# Entry
Amino acid sequence: MKTLIYILMFFLSTQLFAQTKKAEDFGFRHIQTIFNGDKVDILIKSKKGEELKKKPIFFFCQGSLPQPLIKYDDQGAYGVFPFRTDSLEKDFHIVIIGKPNIPLIVDLKKLGRNMCYEDSLTHKTPKKYSDKNYLDYYVDRNLKVIEILQKLPYVNTNKLVVAGHSEGSTIASKLATKTTKITHLIYSSGNPLGRILSIIEQDRMIEADTDSTRFAEKQFDYWKQVVENKNNFDDTNGDTYKATYDFSIPPIQYLQKLTIPILVCYGTKDYSSPYNDYLRVEMIRQQKKNFTFKSYIGLEHNFFPLTESGQPDYDKFNWDNIANEWWKWTNKK
# Structure
C-alpha cells in the first residue's frame, strides 16, 4: 500500500513539474530584480550558441496593456516581441521587461479581453498594476535595469539601442534624457504631442456631419478632469488620470533635447501620423541632424494596411520588415 502511495505521489509531482513553465522553455534567459518593492521580470533573447558572446543590448519598451510577456496555449507560445528577432540577434542581446505586478507566464485560457491579465476575483485590471502604470515609474525602473544589464559579462557597453513602440515610445524618449548610456533611440508609432491628442483624433475620425454626438467634445471634458486630478490613481474607468496625464505630456519635449541618433517611424494611416509629420517639419526647422524619419505609406499603428472598410488587414504582416530596417539603421548609425 505504501509503495502505491509513493508511486502516486511521484506521478502527481512529475505532472505538476511538467506543467510548470519557465522562461527558458521558450528560449529566453530570465533575470529578476526588485524595484520599489515590486518584482521585475527581465527577459533576454540571444542568438542560439551566442548567449555568452559579448554584444550590446537592444532594449525594447513595449506598448500599453497589462499583458504577460509569455502567453501560451496547447499549440505553443505567442510572440513575446511583435517581430521576429533573427536580424537583431546578429548584433544584439535583446531585452524586454514585464509589466509591474503582472505574472511573467500565463496560459491564454486564463487571460481576459485583448490577452490582458485580470484579477481572479474582480475580473478587472489588478490595482497593483494600475498603481505603478505611469511614465516615471517605467523610466526609473528601466534605468535600474540598464545598470544591472551593463554589469553582465556578455554585454558590450559601448552601444545601447533603446526602441519603444506606441506607449513605449514615450517611455523610451524620456528614458534617453535621463542617461548618457543610451547611444541610439528608435521612436515607433508614438505621438510626439501626447496621448490625449491620439484619443481625440480617434474620436474625430468616427464623427459625422449628420451625427448629433460629438465624441471628441467628451474627450476635452475628460482631459479637463484629468488635469484637475493629475495625481489620481483611481482606475475605475481603465487608465488612471495619473497615467493619462503623464503620457500626454508632449514627448517632443524629450526628443528635441537629444543629440544621439534617433529613428522616427510611423504608418501614415495611424492616428498620430499628422503629429509625427509635424515633428519632422519642426526638426527640419531646428536643423536637427540626428533625426531619421521613416513613414510607411498606407499602414496603421501596428504597421498593417487597411481594408476598404478601414479595418486593419491582419493577413498582411509587416513587423518583421520593420525590425529588419531597425537593424540596418543601427548598423548605419
Observations:
- The two ends are 71 Å apart (CA to CA).
- The CA atoms of residues 305 and 311 lie 8 Å apart.
